[in-house]
Amino acid sequence: MKKIFYIIIIFIIFGSVIAPRYSLAFEKSKIDMIAQNDFVVEPGKTEVFLNPGDSMVKNIIITNRINKTVRFKLSTEDFVGTDDPKQPVTLLGDDHSPYSLKDFIVPEINEFSLELGEKIIIPVTVSIPKNAEPRGYYGALIVSNDPDNQEGQNPKDVEGKTRIISRIGSLFLLKINGEGKEEGAVENFKLIGPQKLFYETRPEGFEIAYKNTGNVHLVPYGMVTIKNMFGKVVNTLPVDAYFVLPDSTRYREVSWTEGFALGRYTAHLSLNKGYGNEYENIDLSFWVLPWKILLMGFAGIALIVALIYYFLTRFELRKKEK
């Protein structure tokens, strides 16, 4: 009996120590909300800095805003940057990239169901091998709904219907601590839209093309300072930080609010390269000549001069005698 008692005690102690390591840590909660026929994944991007052989746990949050219970699935894919301003990243599906991370992104669970307004927080482990090179690694956790597996739905009800699967990715950008190749430069700095000799109205803003020639992602940021023909600063526009993947060009637009403008302007871009304290400085000059307004103004002045001349030549002004 004593042996059995001791065995039971050992199992209890062993279970209390070991079991928590394998217990599920995801959390669910629910709030009242109006259905919007979509679901939300947060955060959209996560940066991770690790030493070779280390791992880290990050959380992702999925909220169901579809007016029914939805089954979700998690998967992983690699992604790479592009030179296309309309598509900054491309998911690679089953393929591996030269900066592959998808095999080292492991969510705690891969399938789950959520009711309308229900939210789940899922721990995701990101790890890297001990022999990993000091560079960037990039992968995405893909959250997709499964329209053919809604809880409480008869399988016959979905036969013959078109499947509409929504996919949302949460990007993971991992950088190995060490000597990665950090290199990049501004490839182009110009006004938004077609380039003109002069502009009738104030331009919408500026476009920055930044090329990353290294092997880790960069996060450039800075400021655009605009001066008029007299050298007076008329606007300062922040360039918010944005990531640029290796071997790609990322475009960033900086809006310039509407307003009257006239004359020659100079825009000065000061952009931190995303590493160290190095800044790249570029100047851009352009003219704003609202010729229609100017033409109307000149016509008005000409009309006033003509009227004055007419009265001076047609009428004689005499001093009134006392």
Can you describe this structure?
The strands form 4 sheets. Strands 3, 5, 6, 8, 10 and 11 form a 6-stranded mixed β-sheet that branches. Strands 1, 2, 4, 7 and 9 form a 5-stranded antiparallel β-sheet that branches. The chain folds into 2 domains: 25-154 and 161-176, Immunoglobulins (Immunoglobulin-like, Sandwich), CATH 2.60.40.10; 184-292, Immunoglobulin-like (Sandwich), CATH 2.60.40.10. It contains 2 helices and 18 strands. A hairpin with a 7-residue loop joins β5 (70-81) and β6 (89-91). The protein has 322 residues and is mainly β.
Number of strands: 18
The 3D shape can be described as elongated
> Kindly state the mean pLDDT as a whole number?
84
Characterize the main sheet: 6 strands, mixed
Structural class: mainly beta
Number of discrete helical segments:
2
Report the radius of gyration as a whole number of Å: 32 Å
So, the CATH homologous superfamily of the largest domain?
A: Immunoglobulins
CATH topology of the largest domain: Immunoglobulin-like
End-to-end Cα distance: 143 Å
Q: Uncertain runs with pLDDT below 50, 5 residues or more?
A: 11-22
User: What share of residues is helical?
Assistant: 10-25%
Total domains, how many?
Answer: 2
Q: What's the order of the H and E elements?
A: HEEEEEEEEEEEEEEEEEEH
